[in-house]
Amino acid sequence: MSQHYKLDRVREMADGDEDFVAALAAAFLEEVPEDAERLRTAVPAKDYKEVYQAAHKMKPTIDLFELGVLDTLIEVQDWGKFEQTDKNVDEQLIVVLTAVDNAVNEIKSDFGL
């Protein structure tokens, strides 16, 4: 259970309310894959604004569930924010998307969602 994410901060925030933990897990599944898909299409299209907005929106949840890719996600976000045309973030994108995919699959399994 939970190799690709951690529930320490989630449980601390939930203060022992496992229903709240499950609700946060469901919210993760509802929001994060959608934003990851936005990144998946916006980075190759060099849609800097969309990249920035999607990455920025994902940050708190990625941090809360401790996927271990927050710094990499920030690199992608900053690429969009500062329109770093001289930089390539394809590798960083793959790292973030892989972490999200792994966490999504694991959370679905762990919470029966």
Automatic annotation (TrEMBL):
Q: Please verify whether the record's keywords include Phosphoprotein.
A: yes
Q: What is the lineage of its organism?
A: Bacteria, Pseudomonadati, Bacteroidota, Flavobacteriia, Flavobacteriales
Spell out the InterPro entries in the cross-references.
HPT_dom_sf, Sig_transdc_His_kin_Hpt_dom
Write down a Pfam family by its short name: Hpt
- Residues in the signal sequence: none
Q: Which sequence positions carry the modification called Phosphohistidine?
A: 56
- UniProt entry keywords in alphabetical sequence: Phosphoprotein
Cite the HPt domain residue spans from the record.
17-110
**BP GO terms, sorted:** phosphorelay signal transduction system
Alphabetically, the GO molecular function entries are: protein kinase activity
Domain of life of the organism encoding this protein: Bacteria
Q: What is this protein called?
A: Hpt domain-containing protein
Say yes or no: keyword Ribonucleoprotein present: no
